[in-house]
Structures are given as C-alpha cells and as structure tokens.
Amino acid sequence: xxxxxxxxxxxxxxxxxxxxxxxxxxxxxxxxxxxxxxxxxxxxxxxxxxxxxxxxxxxxxxxxxxxxxxxxxxxxxxxxxxxxxxxxxxxxxxxxxxxxxxxxxxxxxxxxxxxxxxxxxxxxxxxxxxxxxxxxxxxxxxxxxxxxxxxxxxxxxxxxxxxxxxxxxxxxxxxxxxxxxxxxxxxxxxxxxxxxxxxxxxxxxxxxxxxxxxxxxxxxxxxxxxxxxxxxxxxxxxxxxxxxxxxxxxxxxxxxxxxxxxxxxxxxxxxxxxxxxxxxxxxxxxxxxxxxxxxxxxxxxxxxxxxxxxxxx
Amino acid sequence: xxxxxxxxxxxxxxxxxxxxxxxxxxxxxxxxxxxxxxxxxxxxxxxxxxxxxxxxxxxxxxxxxxxxxxxxxxxxxxxxxxxxxxxxxxxxxxxxxxxxxxxxxxxxxxxxxxxxxxxxxxxxxxxxxxxxxxxxxxxxxxxxxxxxxxxxxxxxxxxxxxxxxxxxxxxxxxxxxxxxxxxxxxxxxxxxxxxxxxxxxxxxxxxxxxxxxxxxxxxxxxxxxxxxxxxxxxxxxxxxxxxxxxxxxxxxxxxxxxxxxxxxxxxxxxxxxxxxxxxxxxxxxxxxxxx
Lengths: 313, 291
Hints:
The complex is a heterodimer. The longest helix of chain A is centred in the middle third of the chain and has 36 residues, at 87-122. Chain A has helices at residues 2-29, 34-39, 45-54, 61-73, 87-122, 127-141, 144-158, 174-208, 211-218, 223-234, 236-261, 266-276, 279-307. Chain A contains 13 helices and no strands. In chain A, 39% of the residues are buried. Chain A is mostly helical. Chain B is mainly α. Chain B is built from twelve helices and no strands. Chain B is flat and about 80 Å long. Chain B starts with a helix and ends with a helix. The relative contact order of chain B is 0.14. The interface between A and B is large, with 53 and 44 residues.
C-alpha cells in the first residue's frame, strides 16, 4: 500500500510538469510579442517595455524557464502585473468564498443526488425512476447561468426570501453566509446532482441484481437495510469516482457561478484578470486548479482500497 | 392501436412500418433530431424570419416582450428575438466545428498512440497534463492571448476536448490490436498504415460518433459560458452567450434578455444529448446496459 501511494505520488510529477510547461509556453508560442499583447492595444512603447521587464521577457528563454520552474517549486505562483501583489496572496484573499461555495455544492449535490439515484434504481421503470432520469437529462443541458438567474428571479426577486447577489464572509456569522451561498450552490450543483444521480442509479441497478441482495431480502433484512448497507456500499466505487470527476466540472462552474452571483472568489479573480489581461494571475490559477484536480484524483484512487477491500495494490 | 402496428406484425412488414417501428424503439434520437432540425431551420432562415440583429433603436430600450418584439428589447433597443435567432447560427457552427476538429485530431493522435509505443508514453503524459487543466481556463488562456475571433474561439474550445477523444480512440485501438485478426494481418504482410485504415479505424467509428455528440454539446455550453464572461466570441457578434452577457446588468428589470437565449441554449444542448444517448444505446449496447 505504501509503495502504491509513493508510486501514485510520483506519477503526479510528470502531469504537473506538463501543466507547468504548457502554461509557460502558452505565453511564448503565441503569435506576436507577448509583452505587447499583455500591455493591451493602447499601450505606449514604454509601457510595453515595462511589462516586458516585469515579466522577465527580455531574458533568454531558457533562463526564463529556469526561473519560472524554480519559483513554482518554491511555491511562488508569480506576481500580478496590476496590483503588484503575489498571486498566492490574491488567492488567499479570495479563497474563502470559493471554498465555501465548492463545499456547499458538494454537500448539497451528494445529499440530494444519492437518495434520488437509490430510489430510482429501487423503483426502476416506474414513474419515480422516469422523473429522476428526466431531471438528470435536464440537469446536463441547463447552463449554470440560466439556472442561477432563474433561482435569483424566483427566490430573491419574486419571493424575497434570499439575497439577490453577493457573499457574506463566515466572520460575519454563519447564517448570513448560508443565506448568501444556498442559491449559488444549487445553481452550480444541478449538473453535479444530475451526474451523481445517474451513476448512483446505474451502479445500484447492477448491484441489486446480485444474489446476495436476494439472500438479504430472503433472510428478512428490512428494505432500507438492504438498500443502504448491502447495496449502496457495494455500489460506492463508481459513485465516488464520478464525484471526483464532477469536481472538475465544479471548478469550471465556479468561475461562471461567481460571476452570476457576484461572489468575490477565485472565479471573480479569474474573470477580472482576463478583463485586465493580468496574465500571471491566469497562469497561477491554472497551475493551482490543475494541482487541485490532480490531488482529488489521487485521493479518489486511494479511497478505492477503503471502499472495496478486494482492490489491492 | 394504429394500422402500423398490425402491419408490423404481418410476415413481411412494409418499409413505412419498419421506419415506424424504428422510431418507436429510438424515441430519443427522433425527438432530439427533430429539435435540432428546427434549430438548423432557424439558423438558415434567419434573414427571412428575423430583423437585423444589430439594429439600434434607442427609443425602444429594455421593452417587455410584445407582439412586435416577441422576446423584448435590450439596452440599445435591439430586438432580442432577432439576436437570438441569429445566435443559433453561432452556436451550431461552434458546436459542429469543434466536434469535427476535436474528433479528427483526437482520432489521428489516438490511433498513433495505440500503435506506436514510443509515441504513446510522451503523448499520453501531455494529454494527462492537458486534462488536468479545467477546460474553461485553458480556453480563456488561449483566447486572451490571441485576437478574439470566431475561429480562435473554435480552436480554443477544441483543444481541451482533444485529450478525451485521444483516450477513447487509444483504448479502442489497444483492445482491437490484441485481437487475432490483426495478428493475422501482420503475419500476412499487411503494412501498418493499411492495418490501421482497414482493420482498426472501422472499430473506432461507433464510439467516436457518440463521443462527437457530447463534444458538440459541451462546446456549445462552453462557448456560451466564455462569451458570458466576456472572454469568448467578439461582443459585436450576436451569440447566445453575448446576448446573455449583455443582459447581465439589467437582469432585475429586464429578465427576458437572459431568459430566452438561455432557454434556447438549454433546449439545443438537451436535443444534442438526446441524440447522443440514443446513438450510444443503439451503437454501443455494452455501455447501454450499464447506464
């Protein structure tokens, strides 16, 4: 097991190396002068020169790459062109809202989707099953901004139950945070719920046809016991996998959701960076998000041994 | 019960009855295709069924949907209905182009990887790295560095889709390669290229078609998302994402600007997914049983 963990950890190195290479060369392989592109169309030659010096673009390519890699290894993601602050500091400032949004979405999606999938599989080919599947198909098609604006319209503008937009930090009380995050979490969670419900149903259907399920029924185990203890536990591996895959969807969705709900998180940081062409921030965030994704995948792989003791490495 | 059913039970079913039976077995493909065809109709007929999407009418700003302007007007008094109808063109063009581009490149790379061990190691590491980057960020990074145009948007959306296609094709190739008839072909002296074209390629087609529909759907969503963020199709082009982005600030007083293009976007993606699900069930029965 330890050997496997080490092997998997080592395997993440080439992946992150490719990401770093990609992010570095992205800037250099684009047609034209990267300094001029970043400085914008109406920059004076002096400003372009300033950007060039600030990003170290006036040095030889190999030297730039060596510096870039060395900085990354030290945990330095670069410095914003406009605010002159380290990207990591900016990330730390914006981390809370995004983290709260991501965790709430994850919790809401799992709490709603797994029971939906279990019931759909248990009542397969009935009206309940059809409704869950229809919801799942719809969930895949609905863009997060449409769901977001519809939720705002119904619950904030018409019913006035919740705030329209914005985010209240945890420091100002958890109730305010919860009220400000519930709509974004549902909007973002819809695709995720659809995905998890669908896989839960499929995985449960497969397990429910096994002999030991019939045995459990025959020896008098209550239906909920059969469904939860005997079936769901054995159906867990694909569900956990898809929850992990879904986290990737979530990262993309965070950027859009934060824009719809005006939440000052990492997504807003990304969008503001795009509008200002603050390229070091975009680069840093790509590395950061890719790192998170690689880490999540690693954790999923490791969780298999715990979920299914038959899997050994 | 209609006459068609009785005909279908007769010993030699007529052509019409067979078509009807097929329709009944594959309702999702039929419904999805019907919606898609109407959308293509909208896109093609845009100049005849809609007004100029760029026509400013400052006196008619932020008007509710009426008999004259079905979907209302935006902050410049532009007709939202006309803009949405023209937007259909952009979404369909982006979806189709990305699907073709990503599957073509993915197919070529995937087959090479499946066949040549030396290429495989390096290319698959690159693909793993690309897959680690969230698609929306990868596309944003590419678009901000180049001059935004529809072509750049299409390329930028295709790149994050490629690794998924490569993986799919590669896994099919690896499975097929191990089959005895490939060994027989090699033993009888068939050249590598001929083996790929004649024996391996046909096996990849069914899963590729299914994958292409999903790529198409996600490309349309991604283009709308990028335009919504202001990092996609140039703002002067009326794409659905741009129309929605325009309506953002006025959402509380003029929700129709966002609602109509948003619903059309959802319907389009739904239709493509329905076709994809249906194709998957008919072309690849192995997966169909699991889902």
